Amino acid sequence: MLPAALIAISVTSAAWASCSPIDDPEALADLERFKTLVTDGEFGTAMLPFEISQSAKTQLVGGLEAVAPNGFEDCTTIKRVRQSDHFISEIFMTEADGKVLYWAISGQIRRGSFRMINFNYSDRFEDFRELMY
To answer: Which positions make up the signal peptide (predicted)?
Structure first.
């Protein structure tokens, strides 16, 4: 089992992901940028704008580099839920060399930017099954 990470972070850039999209509800640019960077293996860059300690960033990057040193071959957004105008959650999956990671991300929408409240990933589908239905 891969380590899970729960972190509070803030993302302020805007770009669109190479992740297979969901059209409804509408995507959030900061969250899509995070998925693009992760898919491309730019784990350090993905962590730069996060408001967490450098040691936490280093630990997250190291764990991801161990699993997918060159990034992921595939990324698919599975579910996106806007709990309100001010909060969003997503589940997506990535794959590299036949290994699948499931991701859950939730956060606050503030002035058009995304502030991460919860972030975790695992290679165990069971860890995310309840969140999908």
So the answer is: 1-17
